[in-house]
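Dig into my protein:

:::
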Amino acid sequence: MFSLANQFVARATRLIFAANGEPALWTVSLHGRVVGSLVCHDGAWRLSWFNGADPRLASFAGPLDGDVEALAEVLSARASAPVTLDAQPV
């Protein structure tokens, strides 16, 4: 139940940011550790990895189309473990 609610809120947040052209930031976490960030600014999406990020994630070349949930699923499959993207205040 909470997972569905979290997905709904994340999707709504993404749509609101995209519609308003507001900058948006998500942290990317694997095994409870923040390993990267996803930024959207003026409609341009950028995925950055921190030092020590899992190479299976850091080698991801895209595409980045603004579907945060789909990106989390793709990254989870690459890492063979759940990857979470959490919206952060900008």
Q: What stands out?
A: The two ends are 28 Å apart (CA to CA). The chain has a mean pLDDT of 83.
